[in-house]
Amino acid sequence: MIVAVLSTFAVAALAPLLEKRLGRRAAPLLALVPAGLFVSLARHVPEVSAGGARTDALGWIAELGVSLSFRLDGLSLLMALVVTGVGAVVLLYAGSYMEGHPRRGNLLGYLLAFLAAMLGLVLSDNLVGLFVFWEATSLLSYVLIGFEREKAEVRASALQALLVTGGGGLALLAGFVLLGQAGGSLEIGALAANAEAVKASPLYLPALLLVLLGAFTKSAQVPFHFWLPDAMAAPAPVSTFLHSATMVKAGVFLLARLHPTLGGTPEWTGIVTTVGAATMLTGALLAVGQRDLKRLLAYSTVSALGSLVMLVGVGTPAALAAAMVLLLAHALYKGALFLVAGIVDHETGTRDVASLGGLFRALPVTAVAAAAAAFSMAGLPPLLGFVSKELLYDAALRASPAPLLLVPVAVGSNMLLVAVALSVGWGPFTGRAGETPKAPHEAPAAMWAGPLLLGLGSLAAGLFSGAISPFVSSAAAAALGAPHALTLELWHGFNLVLAKSLATLVVGVALFAARGRIRSLAGSLAPLAAFGPGRLYRAGLAGLVRLAKGTAALLSSGSLRQDLRIVLAATVALAAPLLLTRAVLGAPDALRSVRPLEAVLALLVVAGAVATLLAGSRLAAVVALGVTGFGVALLFLVFGAPDLAMTQFAVETLSVLLFVAVLRRLPRLQSRSAPRARVVDALLAGAVGAVMTGLVLAVHAEPLRSSLAPFFRESSLALAKGRNVVNVILVDFRGLDTLGEITVLGVAALGVWSLVRLRIASRGAGANGGRS
Amino acid sequence: MNLLLVVPLLVPLATAAATILLARSPRAVRAASFAGAAAFLAAAVALLGATLDGTILVTQAGAWAAPFGISLVADRFAAAMVLVAALLLAAVVAYSVRGVDAARERAGYHPLLHVLSMGVSGAFLTGDLFNLYVWFEVMLMGSFVLVSLGGERAQLQGALKYVVLNLVSSALFLAGAGLLYGSVGTLNMADAAVALRELPAQGLPSVVASLFLLAFGIKAAAFPLFFWLPASYHTPPMPVAALFAGLLTKVGVYALVRVLTLVFVRDTAFTGPLLLAVAALTMVTGVLGAMAQGDVRKILSFHIVSQIGYMLMGLGLGTRLALAGTVFYVLHHIVVKANLFLVAGAMRRAGGSFSLDRLGSLLARSPLLAAAFLVPAVSLAGLPPLSGFWAKYLLVRAGLEAGNGTIVAVALAVSLLTLFSMTKIWNEAFWKPAPAGADAAPAPLTTAERASLLGPVLVLGAVTVAIGLGAGVLYRFADAAAAQLLDPDLYVRAVLGARDGRM
Does a structural domain hold residue B439? Predict the structure, then answer.
């Protein structure tokens, strides 16, 4: 399994090259990859249906429990079949849809890479491994939504999808880590076996909330649903594959996968069911008013995702089984409808349902596929959609906490969805022909083959629902964490559920008939959409950028003085409290032994520093600075370090001379700062000085216990053959320091030389680097 | 005398000298520079190889026994830092063939690169605090001249801020070293570590330690001490900026790790929370600063600051996993960050500007360049399976295991904003059509330019990918390095083991 996933990535990388060589033949060839995977996966259906599972593992960071471990059980096999099956169809379709597009090869490559990532996601049995694929799908979704990157709104939609799902992804990461801590493993199987400990852990609730955040953003649950309709900026094959059939189901998949570990608690049931139900209703309500085919489908997808999440939240065997059937049914009918929408757009040049009609004559095959899919979505027997809707109602009726609430929400949403289904799959093909930008022709076979196959799939799966029962049951069992046997039937007899199904259809058809009025009503309500969470996202992003600009302005004042102040203030802020609380302050002993000469010299040094600051001319400042320097040198002398003193004298003399030499060339000294600013500076400088003084006194309060000085005194002549200890330290004991300092001097010389020699004329901001 | 410890200092020095002597022939200078970088790399590989089994290599310079002379020490962390530094130097030298103008090359560019590298590897390998100060000065002077080399107005303004604020750091460092000597009578880190054990943990030593924290904090560009960085890093040519971005702040981080795990180890009740607070603020202010910029170089510069926060986070948490996270993060970050600056130079060459307003359609113009950008950018944002993800994962896990949800939340939020920043560059420079009225598109990259500019970038990108895919290898190393750091006795015994007399 691992090899299959990884080699699919490799093929994806080669896809653009292949397309360049083979042209239109590349897409069918590439579609063989997922088709082949589909077949080889399908061979495991009997084994998995019987309750078996296959595993495969590759270590990654074994010490941390991170691995690529794959598990093929009912749940992952169902998802993997959807991924590869729809993937094959979509690749074939994309080759034709993008005919003549200069970057067709790239699109095929991205799609195939996404397919591999999605396959890895659903097969993963290790949380971190799963997360790696999870993020890969988010990133590829970004690239695919932004495929037509020339338009600004396309780029914005891509970014929005990435930030919403990426943000959720980060929460998910934290949730996974906590989950690993609570359960002692990152392997999903091991966690499920340890579920009681996980649920009893204090980390359970934070872990659950973080995981849910990740799943909800990915599966476009309220209030994060807004990114999905905007993601319709992507080309039709992308919308079909990522934003309907597979990626958006990753969140649902994850919830189902973790249900044995996390599910069944009041928190789980309460949150997941509520959010799912809210999403189901919101999506359906927002869908009916749309005019754009793809947005209609997108909102109805949101609604379907809500149903799935709700079912997983309810978590009863019946609900999970309903979720698995709905998952399959939705992939089949919604995939087909998205592809149909792409064909309609491709052939007529518009996606506005109000101007579409009577396309049956021009697009007969497409129309058949569309009708099959739409009827399945509307829940007409004998299609699979009917079966799934029956199960949904049944599960809602029998949900333990609040069937009274769930049932009306489910029925109401589905009534609306019937209208949506008919608006997409029925309306455009029947009635009077509309005015469209292009005269429609039937699409090439490569394009209608997909929707037709998926539409027929809906029919076949519905008719032979008994045959797929064991397989669907095994998927539900995996989500349940216990064996479960379900028998799917088209006919359940006359009961409450059937009555609701009939009511749904009747009201739905009525709504469809009134679609014109609904759309105009929705149009008049459109301004309300501005208050949705999408607006919150945009306002948040804009606010963040404003905050960033403010911070940046605050941080880069451009003034060196300001920066120095902050650095010095930080110094005082950190060191002063420590000094006051942790050091023994005051060092009377050290101070009492000060000789008068030392005191005088110290005052001289201080006076020099003060005079430097107060000096009115540069010359005076340099001289005053010289006084400080010579004072320090004299101090060295007094303390018996003639070598140091001589060096200091030389340095001071030289620097004063150098200063004086360049002073003539400098502009007049002028005071530029306000008195208040100078007071602040003085206080700050005084504080730094006080801290340093305090530190020195504190250190001197304790005797110096060093073995170094005696060693140097004794060994200087004996071992290093030098009488002058300071010199021996410099050139022998610590010769490496001197090597470094010599290097510094050499570099300084080189710097002066090059600064004088090389003056690249400023060619405006940013005009450096690069050979020109 | 262990040559392995000396060669990483001598090779850059000798190369610097050779490139000065050969200055008349640019071709010879480049050849010598590259040969020197390759030799440095080989020496670094050998050094790392010798430390992999846990050996701590020690050499006493001039054969004066510790603590009387200067000890050179290499444990796993130090050796790995030398290796990435060497890798980076080689990449930068190769990139400079086309990435730097001939005028700068003639004016001492190559010798300066090698002197800087010498300073960096000295700082990693020294076991002596004053010697560390000396290497800091070598780096500071080398980098100051490099940042001002060329004398463009913006450069000199940036260089002034750079040098003044870094001199404050030097002053604090020197004061700290002096005071430490005054209180324990030694500058040898191992010796000081032993001496400090006898003093009260919460007394004067922690006051002295604060000066080191400040000095290294400035070097590391931690909040609120980082102003020199965004003021200067965008001004020099990109290979120089890349070298700085990769190495200089990380030397500060390295020094912080070293002194806080070896010398000032006993006041974690104070340093831990302080570092975590600084880490959070550094992450946040850095990333916000980056979001406000419209110039690729400035965006990248602010992100350096932001990511220093992650490294400090691991140090602040202080557990073995957290330190392993810091080690992993530092090593990954050096490669990725430097690479992004190199890519920025190539973007300017291909798109004619560093400004996102004036860039566009680079994806169409050079898909190879786009791929070269994407790898380090995605890694920087911490997306799997690249190196940055694992670095972030280790820290997040360490934070949660330590029960510190706040710092983890900050780290994750900042990583989302980093992703935003990287996609901003991608959206504007690579996806967006070239803006109307922009300067005519520069000529496509020549083959020689491709080799010189994109070659090193792709090699560094391959390293990033390899670290990501083989994360277990680097994690095991980082974990072993962290274990070594957390047991300062190992270091002390290695350095002071043979205390008496000459070796």
Answer: no
Which of A555, A575, A737 lies closest to B207 in CB terms? A575
Out of B62, B181, B291, name the one closest to residue A735 (CB): B62
- Both tokens of residue A597? 């000469």
The amino acid that residue B468 corresponds to is G
Residue numbers in A near B413 (CB within 8 A): 170
The reply to whether B501 falls in a domain is no
Tell me if B103 and A758 make a contact (CB, 8 A cut-off): yes
> Is some CB atom of chain B closer than 8 A to the CB atom of A162?
yes
CB–CB contact A741 B134 (8 Å): yes
**Set of chain A residues whose Cβ sits within 8 Å of the Cβ of B419:** 162-163, 166
| Co-location of A351 and A473 in the same domain | yes
Within 8 A of A742 by CB-CB distance, chain B residues are none
Q: Which residue has the higher pLDDT, A726 or B29?
A: B29
Decide if A171 and B383 are in contact by the 8 Å CB cutoff. no
DSSP string, A100-147: T-TTHHHHHHHHHHHHHHHHHHHHB-BHHHHHHHHHHHHHHHHHHHTT
**Are A563 and A700 in the same domain?**
yes
One domain for residues A322 and A450? yes
Asked, for residue A545, whether it belongs to a domain, the answer is no
Any domain includes B437 = no
State the 10-residue block means of pLDDT for chain A, 772 residues long: 90 92 92 96 94 90 92 96 96 94 94 96 96 96 94 93 95 96 94 94 96 97 93 93 93 97 94 95 92 93 96 93 95 96 93 90 94 95 92 85 81 94 93 84 92 95 91 93 81 81 91 87 76 85 91 78 92 91 67 82 92 85 91 90 89 89 77 81 93 87 79 88 87 92 94 78 41 36
Q: Quick one: A302 and A407 in the same domain?
A: yes
Residue A769 lies in a domain: no
- CATH of residue A602's domain is 1.20.120
How far apart (Å, rounded) are the C-alpha atoms in residues A127 and A211?
11
CA distance A246 to A222: 19
Q: Please return the burial class of A102, using the count of CB atoms within 10 Å of its CB with bins 0-12, 13-18 and 19+.
A: exposed
Can you tell me the distance from the alpha carbon of A623 to that of A615, in angstroms, rounded to the nearest whole number?
9
ipTM of the complex: 0.93
Which of A106, A124, A738, A768 to mutate to probe the B interface, most B CBs <10 Å?
Answer: A768
Shared domain for A36 and A91, answered yes or no, is yes
Find the closest chain B residue to A564 by CA distance: B165
**CA-to-CA dists, residue A652 to A610, A630, A666, A747, B496, angstroms:** 18, 7, 21, 21, 40
Do the Cβ atoms of B101 and B149 come closer than 8 Å? no
Q: Give the pLDDT mean for B375-402.
A: 95
Q: For chain B, how many structural domains are there in total? A: 1
Residue B57 in any domain: the answer is yes
All residues of chain A having their beta carbon less than 8 Å from the beta carbon of residue B183 are: 699, 702, 704
Q: Do A732 and B62 touch (CB under 8 A)?
A: yes
Looking at the structure, tell me whether residues A389 and A287 fall in a common domain: yes
Residue A215: inside a domain, yes or no? Answer: no
Range of the domain at B218: 3-432+449-496
- The verdict on a CB contact (< 8 Å) between B175 and A162 is no
Residues A564, A687, single domain; the answer is yes
The residue of chain B with its CA nearest to that of A734 is: B69
Secondary structure (3-state) at B57? strand
Identify the closest residue of chain B to A748 by CA–CA distance.
B141
E strand or H helix at B174, and its extent?
helix B153-184
Domain identity same for A592 and A723: no
Give A539's strand partners: none
The domain tally of chain A equals 4
Q: What range defines the domain where residue A652 resides?
A: 559-705
Cα B344–chain centre separation = 18
Torsion angle of C-alpha atoms A711, A714, A715, A719, degrees rounded to 10: -160
For residue A175, tell me if it sits in a domain.
no
